[in-house]
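Deviations from the work plan: none for this task. Representative record:
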Amino acid sequence: QKEVEQNSGPLSVPEGAIASLNCTYSDRGSQSFFWYRQYSGKSPELIMSIYSNGDKEDGRFTAQLNKASQYVSLLIRDSQPSDSATYLCAVLTDEKLTFGTGTRLTIIP
Amino acid sequence: EAEVAQSPRYKITEKSQAVAFWCDPISGHATLYWYRQILGQGPELLVQFQDESVVDDSQLPKDRFSAERLKGVDSTLKIQPAELGDSAMYLCASSPGTGPFHEQFFGPGTRLTVL
């Protein structure tokens, strides 16, 4: 069983709509959760971090964490073509960061 | 804005040759990480430094890979000899310290192609 699982996509969303990206993790002891955005050929860029159950909002981005269900998600409101990228979920367990394989998101103009 | 610096950005080498990558973390960041990212996968940790000490190198193929951070600031990752399967993006990241609230920030990476 993979430690961090994401749907690889591609996920296609119309411009202006809400994009919803999901991630599940296997270790109940995981402490911190991160979303990175990675454009093709570029390095990962941190966009959100979340540490406790509930929602955390930053601009058009909302991260949601449910530790009981071992589930973390990222919502992107008012999706823009510039949001087209691969989104990596990363989970910190015992001070080690484990990444999912990423979900490729395409925003359709 | 403070950034992690890496060089070179691209490296093409032949198998059995030696290659080296350099990383300069964000100023003041005590923790430095080297990751390898194969196309279509997430980054995987190779080695973690806290200041000049290795904290975790359990996934570093030590028969061919070595890493050092002699003065606790910049770091070098070396591969000798390179193999075809080493073709990947090598990413350096840094964080202010360890613990659950320390975010990791990545440099631009070095794209390695082994022919």
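The CA atoms of residues 24 and 103 of chain B lie 17 Å apart.
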